[in-house]
Design goal:
This protein has two domains: about 220 residues; about 170 residues, Reverse transcriptase/Diguanylate cyclase domain (Alpha-Beta Plaits, 2-Layer Sandwich). By secondary structure, it is α+β, with helices and mostly antiparallel strands. Helices cover about 65% and strands about 10% of the residues. It contains 13 helices and nine strands. The N and C termini lie far apart (about 70 Å).
Length: about 400
């Protein structure tokens, strides 16, 4: 059996390490705000362990009251930290913080008169907060963090079991008399607490790592200028959409949108106005499309909109709305002002197609046809062969298909 002094020393060293690690992580990455709460929880646990290690063990009402309050505050910090990672919403109601504050005041009032009741109250509240944390972690909707969040939920359940074991004990150092000598349950409780606190600290760091990986994954799939998905992200979404369309026998449409005479706009008014035009077009695409639609910037001034569940008619109607909305846009940059138009090609997935390559090629064909016929229009290429008649345009599209590259555009 490990003696209490060695146990507290091991816990103190591990908690100091995790506190320093989380503090440095929170300082180096200020975007991950949940790490601040988790670092504060580790710091509280470290401070309490240090007090118990360097100070004399006492059962005074003051020591018990401080421990009871720290337990509630620590679980509150853990809740707020985990909430940032898996919910991403601020607390809208002030009721919960007010209740926690009221509980802390009540514990401080009760401790001089009845320490047992104060400790009971703190552990009941801690169990309630812990249960809320477990439910929140288990129900996270962020797929990239789901496994890590559920690991954290299991660790929280273990910590709640220890709190519950102390709750049902009549005394902190109660012993169970069996056939042999008595067993000091407080020692097992201390060992379990050190183990669970260490695992919980590991879970804090694991959640930070998972969030960092998720953010890097998303950032490599987002176009910096417009905030839309890039071509890589669109290809991943298209692969899933085609699979779902074939599995559920539903329709899938694609729009290819290209700003007309964008190079002329850049050459005449400068790249600042051109960048503003691209951002405005991205905002229009987001405003006009639905939650299930996927919008992306393919490259240069060319955009794509993937439309799960839409047939050729509804896709063409959406394309016409987009064209009209773009035609009403005016881009301004100081005294500079320019109007915009766009050409749009529309295609749908065939029943026998296992990927989106041919659908993309048909939408591309339709887009070039719209360009050739005068721009500022919508052209449809639903199921038939290429609508191209120009040998030069046909060669250009064939080259793009071969290398799977976006249409060359001006450098932005």
């Amino acid at each position: 059996m490990i003696d209490v002094h060695t146990l507290y020393l091991a816990g103190l060293i591990s908690q100091a390490t995790f506190t320093l690690t989380l503090t440095l992580l929170a300082w180096s990455d200020k975007r991950t705000k949940g790490t601040v709460w988790l670092a504060a929880a580790c710091a509280l646990q470290f401070a309490w362990t240090a007090t118990r290690f360097f100070g004399r063990t006492t059962t005074s009402a003051a020591s018990g009251a401080i421990g009871a309050c720290l337990l509630v505050v620590l679980l509150s910090f853990v809740y707020m930290g985990f909430r940032w990672f898996v919910v991403r919403k601020d607390l809208r109601s002030k009721v919960a913080p007010a209740l926690v504050g009221g509980v802390l005041v009540l514990i401080l009032i009760l401790s001089p008169f009845n320490l047992g009741v104060a400790m009971l109250l703190s552990r009941v509240v801690a169990l309630t907060i812990g249960a809320c944390v477990v439910v929140m972690l288990w129900r996270t909707k962020i797929v990239a963090l789901r496994m890590t969040a559920r690991f954290c939920a299991f660790v929280m359940i273990a910590s709640m079991l220890i709190i519950f074991a102390r709750l049902i004990s009549k005394q902190p150092a109660e012993t169970w008399k069996g056939d042999g000598d008595g067993v000091d349950l407080s020692i097992y409780a201390r060992e379990g607490t050190v183990a669970v606190v260490t695992l919980l600290s590991f879970s804090f760091i694991a959640l930070f790592v998972g969030e960092t990986n998720r953010r890097l994954h998303d950032e490599t799939r987002i176009d910096v200028l417009t905030g839309l998905r890039n071509r890589r992200a669109l290809e991943e979404e298209a692969a899933r959409a085609v699979q779902q369309a074939n599995l559920n026998k539903t329709s899938l449409a694609l729009l290819m949108v290209d700003l007309d005479r964008f190079k002329t706009l850049n050459d005449t008014w400068g790249h600042a106005l051109g960048d503003r035009a691209l951002r405005m077009l991205g905002a229009v695409l987001i405003a006009e499309t639905g939650n299930n639609d996927v919008t992306a910037r393919m490259g240069g001034e060319e955009f794509a909109v993937l439309l799960p569940g839409r047939d050729i008619d509804s896709a063409a109607q959406l394309a016409e709305r987009l064209r009209e909305s773009i035609a009403t846009m005016q881009v301004k940059d100081g005294d500079k002002k320019a109007s915009l138009t766009a050409s749009i090609g529309v295609s749908v997935l065939r029943a026998d197609e296992a990927n989106w390559d041919e659908m993309l090629a048909r939408a591309d064909d339709a887009l070039y046809c719209a360009k050739r016929e005068g721009r500022d229009r919508v052209k449809i290429c639903a199921l038939g062969p290429s609508v191209l008649t120009s040998e030069r345009d046909a060669e250009r599209v064939a080259w793009r298909r071969r290398w799977s590259l976006p249409k060359p555009g001006p450098m932005l």
